[in-house]
Design goal:
DNA polymerase, domain 1; 5 helices; 60% helix; globular
Length: 119
């Protein structure tokens, strides 16, 4: 199966770089020598649960998406009858990144400054 060559044609350059780095760092480093047919849903769930202890929601969610896409392609190409990643979800224990919110006073000052500059 040729997952990366196939999807490289679809991804923008920055997406390709980010995805390949994430795949190498988190998936290939851990599962490199494994056959896709040896995975089951419980093992993938445990993998995501473990990653959720140290990584952000966004990264774990992308890993879940990567696994789903890889196994969906294996099913579509006839390598597997069904995907062990089909029912995976992102664990709720994942750390959510702090949302940065601009205080109203700061926003108001920026607006007044930009209005003054454009005059």
């Amino acid at each position: 199966m040729s997952y990366l060559p196939f999807y490289r044609r679809k991804w923008k350059r920055t997406t390709m770089m980010t995805n390949e780095d994430r795949l190498a760092h988190h998936l290939t480093s851990e599962f490199d020598s494994r056959l896709l047919s040896t995975f089951d849903r419980d093992e993938l769930r445990v993998f995501l649960d473990r990653k959720s202890l140290t990584l952000s929601f966004s990264v774990v969610d992308h890993l879940r998406w990567d696994l789903k896409q890889i196994f969906d392609m294996a099913v579509a190409e006839g390598y597997l009858q069904r995907s062990p990643a089909a029912l995976l979800f992102t664990p709720r224990e994942c750390r959510l990144a702090a949302t940065r919110v601009m205080p109203w006073k700061t926003c108001d000052r920026c607006y007044r400054f930009s209005k003054f500059e454009s005059s």
